[in-house]
Design brief:
This protein is mainly α. It is 67% helix and 0% strand.
Length: 45
């Protein structure tokens, strides 16, 4: 399990990426792979 600070930062990265994708591409085109790529995280996270 991630350290508490890293977990908080990781959640923020993911939510920021999700928001950018929804604004740019709309919700219908949202995928986990796109969120990971946008956040600069490996797909396993």
């Amino acid at each position: 399990m991630a350290r508490p600070k890293m977990e908080t930062e990781r959640k923020a990265q993911i939510l920021d990426a999700l928001g950018r994708i929804v604004l740019r591409d709309r919700l219908a085109k949202l995928t986990l792979a796109k969120v990971g790529e946008e956040a600069g995280l490996p797909r396993s996270l």
